[in-house]
Amino acid sequence: MTTSAATPARQAVIQACASVGLDAAAAEPVRLAENQTWRLPGQGVILRVARVGQLDTASREVRVARWLADNDVPAVRPLDIDQPVLAAERPITFWAELPEHEHGTATDVAALLKSLHRLPKPDIALGYLDPFVRISERMAAATAISQDDAQWLHGLHQDLVAAWAERPTGLPDCAVHGDAWPGNLVRTATGRLMMDLERFSVGPPEWDLVSTAVGRMTTGAVTAEEYDEFCEAYGADVTEWDGYQTLASIRELRMVTYALQHAASNPEWIGHAQYRIDCLRGRSGPRPWVWKGIL
After folding, report:
1. Closest-CA residue to 195 (of 76, 27, 63)
2. Going by DSSP bridges, is the β-strand pair 174-176/201-203 parallel, antiparallel, or unpaired?
């Protein structure tokens, strides 16, 4: 997403800040993606500008963050105000700005997940995990692939929906992050923090573990040593579970359709999206492959 996306969002940021008594005159964009991030310099405030129609998701993020705080799980903290705020039909949430930080490691992810998964099921409305959220919309918007590849992806999607419904029994359901990888976790001088809580839900803890396993087994983004350390820190290896391949295949499909989404608006990503499809269709040799990350 280009900086041209900042112009309409800036007006929404100014409007939302005015409604809660904050000055947005110097607001600056930090990240312009599906969900935009803005900063209020000198005020210690970060704004998340969600997509139109995502009010329920934004509201859940705030509830989750407050629940995590109540349970002493380190995570980003929302400001103590009535939020989200709707501005230009976009839900906007307000968060305490983090101190100087860097992305975490796979072992950091394991440590936080271990703490999270041990908690009792939350008494707040979260909904059950939907691992297929937005996959259909992303495939419908894919214009840069052949009809044959599109039909194959639709068939894979249908097969995985059926396999998910019949997955083997695993660990007991619990609160899950939903998108647990080092990019959604940071290290500060005082410890590790979870971020990006929009996929938080109740579901199988294996879903949170699969992302790192896929990084090792599918994309090669995680080394053997890093994966061993991840499993040791968490206390289990999800690849040994009978349902691993189903969840891994769903994660792979998500990664393909995410690339397709970017390819629809950025020609640079057409080749990368096609390569991911070719990998899944057996045209690029066995796993692990090398998939370029999308930031």
Report:
1. 76
2. antiparallel
Q: Looking up tokens 């997940």, which residue turns up? A: 113
Cβ partners under 8 Å of residue 215, min gap 6: 106, 181, 221, 222, 227
The H or E element spanning position 87 is strand 85-87
Q: How far apart are CA 65 and CA 196, in angstroms?
A: 10
Nearest alpha carbon to residue 230 among 264, 275, 180? 180
For residue 173, give the DSSP letter: P
> For the chain, how are helix, strand and coil distributed in percent, rounded to 5?
45, 15, 40
pTM of the model: 0.90
218 with 248: CB under 8 angstroms?
Answer: yes
pLDDT in tens, the chain (295 residues): 444 556 778 999 999 999 999 999 999 999 887 789 999 999 999 999 999 999 999 999 999 999 999 999 999 999 999 999 999 999 999 999 999 999 899 999 999 999 999 999 888 888 999 999 999 999 998 888 999 999 999 999 999 999 999 999 999 999 999 999 998 999 998 889 999 898 999 999 999 999 999 999 999 999 999 999 999 999 999 999 999 999 999 999 999 999 999 898 888 899 999 999 999 999 999 999 999 877 5
Residue type, 188: T
Whether domain 103-280 has CATH 3.40.190.170: the reply is: no
C-beta atoms surrounding 174 within 10 Å: 17
What is the rounded distance in angstroms from the CA atom of residue 266 to the CA atom of residue 80? 38
Separation of alpha carbons 295 and 292, rounded Å? 10
Instruction: Report domain extents, the chain.
Output: 3-97, 103-280
CATH superfamily of 3-97: Phosphorylase Kinase; domain 1 (3.30.200.20)
- DSSP per-residue letters across 59-74: HHHHHHHHHHHHTT--
